[in-house]
Design goal:
Shape: elongated
Strand content: under 5%
CATH class: Mainly Alpha
Number of strands: 2
Length: about 150
């Protein structure tokens, strides 16, 4: 979840204040002139709630975190019309998220490939060189496997 925390920190940086200000706290229908917001949006989400869930380890995996970020943007674009300033902020901040998320996914996939290759190399180390049989076929004879926890 470290990558998710880093992405959250990126989205909340002061350099994105012009984009993230509307998403830092839950929507206040009175202050934001959106009296029917909670009638239209059934699952509200904002960056403060996402941070609280990160801090409480409420996310089962990275995808749960990404789903909440996407929900936040989707809610905004559902309630606001294209061309609206907040709608545009959602689109622009979403681009920042998608860029950071893709980089994190690429890193996760690279690590998974490295782990798979390491396991494969370990499995090959457990095999002896192929032996010829009387029929001319090659067989692999596994080395003795130690099944203890030592």
């Amino acid at each position: 979840m470290k990558a998710c925390s880093q992405i959250w920190k990126e989205l909340t940086k002061p350099k994105y204040k012009h984009l993230n200000a509307a998403f830092m706290q839950p929507v206040d229908p009175v202050a934001h002139g959106a009296p029917n917001y909670y009638q239209v949006i059934k699952r509200p989400m904002d960056l403060s709630n996402i941070k609280a869930k990160l801090d409480d380890s409420a996310y089962h995996d990275q995808e749960d975190f990404a789903d909440d970020i996407r929900l936040m943007f989707s809610n905004c674009m559902t309630y606001n019309q294209p061309g609206n300033h907040v709608y545009q902020c959602a689109q622009d901040l979403e681009k920042v998220f998608l860029d950071k998320w893709q980089k994190a996914q690429d890193t996760f996939q690279a690590l998974a490939r490295q782990q798979a290759e390491a396991v494969q190399e370990d499995n090959h180390a457990e095999m002896e060189v192929p032996h010829d049989t009387a029929e001319g076929k090659l067989i692999f004879v596994p080395k003795k496997i130690n099944c203890t926890n030592r």
